[in-house]
Design a protein that fits this description.
This protein is of the alpha+beta class. Helices cover 22% and strands 29% of the residues. The longest helix has 17 residues. Keywords: Hydrolase, Protease.
């Protein structure tokens, strides 16, 4: 059923693409060929057909087919002209918005813009607004870098990745492409999912979000603002003993270190399987004694002490 028709006559000088923009593109456009005295042909065309046959130029076609958001440096907030674009919508009268001319729009509420992977919070619904506006100021406050040039613009996140691209369209920057990254989550949401996922690092959590590998995980860019105390403590390790730089030994035999090793899998020619190592702390002189059995260590140490003290004419202070 045809609900709206546009009559085109060559003598009135009105172009089809101008009518399309002024009427916000009717769902179905009935193009009546009126170059004959009587109507003989009626063709139903969609905007895609209009573009295909040359009635719409490329910029108009992209603007009307996609839910385009215009990057506006003079806009103080994100604004949507259609209520249907917003989820989690809250009705709240928020005053009026003054446009470039004398027209004014009324703020009817706010909500989230969700389309595929994108989620932008606090988007105001302005009744009477013809286009959707992305505020460069709000993007900058969220930590993004907004850069404009002659042919377009782009928005980068904190890691330098381009998340929004726009092209120049009649003096405006139209973001016709999908925004393929996510808006930044709050600190509370980030840490909540950090603990729910058993202290998984934020880089891997964002991969789970972008690839939709976890059911119920919100489509938000998770980020941390501080170190996790539990993870920091879990990665710490204590030294086995305090570091000691200077020794208290000033003479030989002030301290002797001993260690007993064995039994060895291969015994010596004399059948000895144990090795007793003794080291002087001051000179680092080392003695090695070989034992047949472990119980021989006590007698060997006593004989060693007597022999060394007699040779050095000094007493061993510590063992």
């Amino acid at each position: 059923m045809v609900t709206e028709a546009i009559w085109l006559r060559k003598r009135n000088g009105i172009h089809l693409n101008q009518l399309v923009i002024q009427n916000r593109i009717p769902i179905l456009i009935l193009l009546l060929l009126t170059h004959l005295p009587k109507l003989k042909v009626a063709i139903s065309l969609t905007p895609r057909d209009l573009y295909r046959y040359g009635y719409l130029n490329t910029s108009d076609f992209l603007l009307q087919l996609c839910h385009v958001w215009l990057n506006d440096s003079g806009c103080t907030s994100h604004m949507a002209g259609r209520r249907g674009f917003l989820s989690n919508y809250v009705e709240k009268e928020g005053g009026r918005v003054k446009f470039g001319g004398k027209d004014r729009g009324t703020i009817r509420g706010y909500g989230w813009l969700t389309n595929g992977k994108i989620t932008i919070k606090n988007v105001k619904y302005v009744e009477g607004l013809d286009y959707n506006l992305l505020s460069s100021h709000q993007l900058s406050r969220s930590g993004y870098l907004v850069t404009t040039f002659v042919m377009g613009c782009y928005v980068k996140d904190e890691d330098g990745r381009v998340i929004i691209r726009g092209r120049e369209w009649h003096g405006l920057y139209a973001c016709k492409e999908k925004i393929y990254l996510l808006s930044k989550a709050s600190k509370e949401d980030s840490w909540l999912w950090y603990h729910r996922l058993s202290h998984q690092n934020f880089k891997d959590m964002n991969k789970l979000v972008s690839k939709k590998l976890v059911v119920g995980l919100p489509e938000l860019c998770l980020g941390k603002d501080a170190l996790c105390p539990a993870c920091a403590q879990g990665k710490m390790k204590r030294s086995s003993h305090m570091a000691k730089i200077d020794t208290n030994c000033s003479h030989p035999l002030d301290m002797i270190h001993m260690d007993l090793c064995g039994p060895m899998c291969v015994q010596s020619i004399n059948g000895k399987k144990y090795i007793l190592v003794l080291i002087d702390e001051y000179s680092h002189y080392t003695w090695v004694e070989f034992l047949r059995a472990k119980f021989e260590a006590a007698d060997t140490i006593i004989l060693f002490i007597k022999r060394v003290q007699r040779l050095m004419d000094r007493k061993i202070k510590k063992l």
